[in-house]
Specification:
Immunoglobulin-like, 3 domains, 54 strands, Methylamine Dehydrogenase, Chain H, 5-stranded antiparallel β-sheet, binds copper (II) ion
């Protein structure tokens, strides 16, 4: 019965919206706040101002709302910001957009009751694609995001925490991914589970130390998994869904893994795969504890919109049985810049997509979606809905409270209000609450609130009751109060502004290797650096990775533990294991010193650092390791570079001094390393 909505759900018709809902938050008023990339849909993609609007699920009406401004009245563009729903129900938004890769340092809050934005003190640097997360004690972690520093576009390595009055830095973490997948754990720490393959834990108390999780450091499968969502489907339990790029065909994966971060030795464990490969998809927790996946593309390009590549069918994962059910298909591509959120009536709003630049040109206007579509999940077709007739407006962790319903129900659940952008929703949570029904009237329930604030960070939440058949009520909106103790004041000696290089070991003295990496992410290696930084550290022989890449040339610099050549044969597979095709190894270049040897017409470099004389060949355009990001191809060789080998041969023929320093790309020819000479210095 493919059309039976009780099995596959049903989509409403597409509704038009004033702008693309790239950033979406469900407000305590039940309305939805959204904004897109630009204030004027026909204007530049990089204007300041973003024209937020409200959408009322009850009436379908949209209306403009206040526009965020700095304290001096300058409008700010909240596109590419990170956001979190605060304990008091306001939405905190940090960072924003100047240009791709270059973020704003602003922060502000939106008050749904007033319909106004209020500026906060700036964050420490421009943050483009940061994540924000409400912590157990009500403070807010803001982490990652890139900004422009001359030609480089470094990712801000220092996270910071908002305590309601000031921002405080935590320990730095070089190599943060953009929009890190962060979640509050029941033990108080914050888990960063992606898109990098290695899971890291941040303790937001005190100085904010980072640790790997206990137990063996087992990376999540399939390496770097960009634009795959992570969902904490129970306190401490996370599922990572698809994303990334297969090292072979560059398509995203359908694979899913779970990790239970409440046990002593957490490991990523395979879960059932999705029916479709997906990247740029959204994952939404539903009132019955299942996880809905919508949209995304199955094609090899970053945001592959080739007909057939975007996935229109939704699917539903049940953590209790680890099974997937394919649901009805939506009408529109929902890929890059699409969003999905659970609405208080148990339906899901899926909207947006588009508004990006590939190379020099923006996406086709037809691929920009100023619209949304509502899914009625299968549970809404399985019988009459129960009704909550009374429930408190505020609950406190650990307490027991009373809920009355119009009929006996089988379960009471809580879903936190949340916000979403770029397949990232840090705040969404689900919990099944323990209940006892009254012996005299089963419609009166004694319900146990979440045990503690670490299990359930404070803030607005949707309370649902469900029938035996899993049919949910419309939510009762309430607020979970803060009970976690206020944070201990930072110990003296905590760095006020930790230095990027502080406390790092001295740079080793081995060969310096320039590594050409082509990022699948269209913004290049400057902002899209975290996965590459992490993968480079796993290459054989690498003792040090420079903390900031060269954005102009799209290269990274590593230092080997030894003098001599890098492991040319092993590196491509080693990189693929960790970075997948999120980064492709374009080639490596080194500068080596030695004496010229070999036939006069076929010079070799001879050095005690080299196991064998290194053949020096003429450079061809396809060898160049440096990249032209705008044109998306290797840089052209200059006349001097094309001529370098001829001049080297002439030097050798002249019989003049043999000591040279030669720079050029290395590659393997029939299993032997050769260097294409791009430049050299020596006696003439
Ligand atoms: Cu974006």
């Amino acid at each position: 019965m493919p059309d039976d909505p009780a099995h596959h759900g049903r989509w409403d018709p597409v509704v038009g919206l004033p702008d693309v809902p790239i950033h979406v938050a469900v407000l305590p008023t039940g309305q939805v706040l959204a904004w897109g990339r630009r204030r004027d849909p026909h204007g530049s993609l990089d204007q300041q101002g973003c024209a937020p609007f409200l959408w009322d699920p009850a009436t379908g009406a949209t209306m403009p709302t206040d526009e965020p401004r700095r304290a001096d009245g300058t409008p700010v563009n909240l596109f590419c910001a990170g956001h979190a729903v605060l304990a008091d129900g306001r939405l905190l938004v940090a960072g924003g957009h100047v240009a791709d890769g270059d973020g704003l340092a602003q922060a502000c809050v939106y008050d749904a009751d007033q319909g106004t934005w209020t500026p906060l003190p700036d964050v420490r640097s421009g943050r483009w694609y940061p994540s924000a997360l409400t912590l157990a004690d009500g403070r807010v972690l803001v982490i990652s995001g890139s900004h422009q520093d001359g030609p480089d576009q470094p990712v801000e390595p220092v996270p910071e925490i908002w305590d309601g009055a000031t921002w405080s830095p935590t320990r730095d973490f070089v190599g943060l991914p953009l929009y890190p997948r962060v979640h509050q754990l029941p033990d108080g720490r914050v888990a960063m589970v992606g898109p990098n393959p290695e899971t890291k834990l941040l303790d937001p108390a005190g100085a904010g130390d980072w640790t790997p999780p206990p137990g063996p450091a087992i990376p999540r499968a399939q390496g770097e998994r960009q634009y795959g969502p992570a969902v904490m489907y129970e306190p401490g339990k996370v599922v990572y869904l698809g994303g990334g790029n297969d090292a072979g065909d560059h398509r995203p994966t359908d694979r899913c893994e779970t990790i239970d971060l409440t046990v002593p030795d957490p490991v990523w464990t395979p879960a059932a795969p999705m029916a479709f490969r997906r990247r740029q998809h959204n994952a939404t927790l539903l009132p019955d504890g299942t996880v809905l996946v919508t949209g995304g593309t199955s094609g090899p390009d970053f945001n592959d919109l080739t007909p057939g590549s975007p996935v229109h069918a939704a699917e539903l994962w049940d953590p209790a049985t680890d099974t997937w059910t394919t649901l009805a298909a939506e009408s529109v591509d929902r890929c890059y810049h699409a969003t999905a959120v659970l609405l208080p009536d148990g339906t899901v709003l899926s909207g947006g997509g588009g508004e990006f630049v590939v190379g020099a040109a923006p996406n086709a206007p037809a691929d920009t979606h100023r619209d949304a579509q509502v899914l009625h999940p299968p549970y809404l077709f399985r019988g009459p809905r129960p009704t909550i007739t009374a429930a408190p407006a505020v609950i406190t962790p650990g307490e027991t409270f009373t809920v009355t319903t119009d009929e006996p129900v089988a379960a009471v659940t809580l879903v936190r209000l949340s916000s979403v952008t770029h397949t990232l929703n840090t705040d969404q949570r689900f919990l099944r609450l323990a209940t006892t029904s009254d012996a005299a009237d089963p419609r009166t329930l004694a319900v146990t609130a979440p045990p503690s604030s670490t299990d359930w960070p404070p803030g607005p939440a949707m309370l649902f009751v469900l029938t035996d058949d899993g049919v949910p009520s419309v939510a009762h909106l309430l607020r979970v109060a803060v009970t976690a103790p206020p944070p201990a004041p930072a110990a003296p000696g905590v760095p006020a502004a930790p230095e990027r290089t502080a406390g790092r070991p001295a740079r080793p003295s081995g060969t310096v290797v320039t590594v050409g990496l082509t990022a699948q992410c269209p913004y290049g290696l400057g902002p899209c650096w975290g996965g590459a930084y992490s993968a480079l550290q796993h290459l054989a022989g690498v003792a040090h990775v420079e903390p900031v890449p060269d954005h102009t040339d799209q290269t990274a610099q590593v230092v080997l533990a030894h003098r001599g050549l890098p492991d040319l044969a092993g590196w491509p597979d080693q990189l693929a294991r960790w970075a997948n095709a999120s980064y492709v190894l374009r080639g490596v270049e080194v500068t080596l010193a030695g004496d010229l040897g070999g036939d006069p017409g076929d010079p070799h470099l001879v050095s005690p650092d080299l196991a064998a004389p290194l053949r020096l060949l003429r450079i061809a355009p396809g060898h160049h390791v440096l990249w032209d990001l705008r044109r998306r191809r290797r840089r052209s060789l200059t006349a001097d570079e094309r001529d370098a080998h001829r001049r080297l041969v002439a030097l050798r023929a002249s019989g003049a001094g043999a000591a040279v320093r030669v720079t050029g790309p290395l590659r393997l020819v029939r299993g032997r390393a050769v260097m294409a000479v791009r430049a050299f210095s020596g006696q003439r």
